């Protein structure tokens, strides 16, 4: 699988600016959702992206939870910042790509990707050599204080507090 930096260079002919990238392997157990939130919170704080911690934690929980509930094997959580965007990616060993669906009022599940779709700039999934990777992006301020995309949900965040 090509990295975002390689894709950006191929499409635009330039390298990403200020690339920051980390990833971790998570155990295939439910406690890994808590671990993923903790890792995300700590890393975003280290990168100075405190304004994105709450939304990123929520969406990472959903995507890691989906990987553990519907995938198989180890799960890899990756975070990267480049060109004003925070990209969160979760890879598992199940090649079936997720799809957005409508949950009925009484359904106990089925709303996770709706949250990802609503709160992120964009999201998607792609098959990998191991299975699949599901990702989403959030705006992240650059060194000059600008972000790569407008925050689509600024008024919604307090509702989740």
Q: Any chance you could write out the topology, listing elements then pairs?
A:
Blueprint: H1 4-12, E1 20-26, H2 31-46, H3 53-70, E2 75-82, E3 85-92, H4 112-119, E4 122-127, E5 132-139
Antiparallel strand pairs: 1-2, 2-3, 3-5, 4-5
Question: What does this protein look like?
Answer:
Residues 28-134 form the Histidine kinase/HSP90-like ATPase domain. One of its GO terms (molecular function) is ATP binding. Keywords: ATP-binding, Kinase, Nucleotide-binding, Serine/threonine-protein kinase, Transferase. It comes from Nonomuraea phyllanthi. With 161 residues, the chain is α+β, with helices and mostly antiparallel strands. The chain has a single domain, classed as Histidine kinase-like ATPase, C-terminal domain (Heat Shock Protein 90, 2-Layer Sandwich), CATH 3.30.565. The chain has four helices and five strands; from the N terminus they run αβααββαββ. It has helices spanning 4-12, 31-46, 53-70, 112-119; strands at residues 20-26, 75-82, 85-92, 122-127, 132-139. It has a five-stranded antiparallel β-sheet, with helices on one face. A hairpin with a 4-residue loop joins strand 4 (122-127) and strand 5 (132-139). Helix 2 runs antiparallel to helix 3 and helix 3 (53-70) packs antiparallel against helix 4. It starts with a helix and ends in a 22-residue tail after the last strand. The relative contact order is 0.18. The model is unreliable at 149-161 (pLDDT under 50).
């Amino acid at each position: 699988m090509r990295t975002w930096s390689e894709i950006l260079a191929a499409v635009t002919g330039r390298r990403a600016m200020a690339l920051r990238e980390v990833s971790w392997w998570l155990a295939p157990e439910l406690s890994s959702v808590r671990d993923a939130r903790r890792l995300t919170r700590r890393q975003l704080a280290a990168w100075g992206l405190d304004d994105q911690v709450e939304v990123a934690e929520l969406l990472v929980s959903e995507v890691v939870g989906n990987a553990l509930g519907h995938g198989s094997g180890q799960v890899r959580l990756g975070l990267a910042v480049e060109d004003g965007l925070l990209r969160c990616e979760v890879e598992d060993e199940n090649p079936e790509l997720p799809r957005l669906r409508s949950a009925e009022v009484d359904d106990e599940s089925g709303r996770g990707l709706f949250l990802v779709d609503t709160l992120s700039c964009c999201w998607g999934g792609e098959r990998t050599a191991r299975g699949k990777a599901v990702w989403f992006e959030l705006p992240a301020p650059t060194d000059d204080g600008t972000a790569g995309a407008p925050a689509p949900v600024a008024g919604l965040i307090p509702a989740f507090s």
